[in-house]
Amino acid sequence: MAELGFFEKVAARAGVSAQTAQSLTEATLRTLAERISGGQAADLADHVAHELRPLLARARPEEPEVFAYDEFLRRVADRAGVEEAVAERGAGAVLQTLHRVVGPDEFQDAMAQLPTEVQALAQPVPHGP
């Protein structure tokens, strides 16, 4: 199943269990779908595994909600049932994994609609010594 690969990559990037990675993935994709336009969410959904597509679906496909980085993390943490530090690491892992699945053009189109701090989460963090 394709989604297992996604969750495993998130788990490895975030340093969390597979179950937590699945919760973080679901929470991050739902929050992302609220924050970007319905059309952009649909474009991303076209590139992910079938099981992940409903997470990017929008109830009201018109305008995105406007909220800042802190609210983005709060929503991810609440939905995933984790602390904000874990939500931040997890959201970054989900966005980095999504970037590789979706490809640079579609991903950048979606990221352009997000606050700079959320965009920064999608950048791979160099590992220290």
What is the end-to-end distance? Answer: 35 Å
Assigned CATH architecture: Orthogonal Bundle
Task: Name the beta content range.
Answer: under 5%
Q: Which class best fits the helix and strand makeup?
A: mainly alpha
Q: In the CATH hierarchy, what is the superfamily?
A: Uncharacterized conserved protein DUF2267
Shape: globular
- Binned, the helix content reads 55-70%
For the record, the count of structural domains works out to: 1
E-strand count: 0
Q: What's the main sheet like?
A: none
Please report the number of helical segments.
7
Q: On the 0-100 scale, what is the average pLDDT? A: 90
**What is the CA-based Rg, rounded?**
13 Å
Give me the strand/helix succession: HHHHHHH
Quick one: CATH class?
A: Mainly Alpha
Report the uncertain regions: none
Query: What is the CATH third-level topology name?
Result: Globin-like
Please, could you describe this protein's structure?
It is a single chain. The protein is mostly helical and 129 residues long. The protein has a single domain, classed as Uncharacterized conserved protein DUF2267 (Globin-like), CATH 1.10.490.110. The protein has seven helices and no strands. It has helices spanning 2-14, 18-35, 38-45, 69-80, 84-102, 104-111, 116-121. Helix 2 (18-35) packs across helix 5 and helix 5 (84-102) packs across helix 6. The relative contact order is 0.19. The mean pLDDT is 90. InterPro entries: DUF2267 (IPR018727), DUF2267_sf (IPR038282). It comes from Micromonospora globispora. This is DUF2267 domain-containing protein.
